[in-house]
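>> received
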Amino acid sequence: MNPIFQAVVSAMIRLKRTCPECKKDQIVSTMKRKATVCCKYCGADMLRRS
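>> returned
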């Protein structure tokens, strides 16, 4: 696998969060990766990943 492509994919996987209410996935910006953010679909809080 291309190392650049692999780096991009692994970065996106680390930023992906799943909403506990509606179970939809979304990507969180790198600036908010350590913060609790609201789901853009239903508005529920999504805790940061460990």
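>> The two ends are 27 Å apart (CA to CA).
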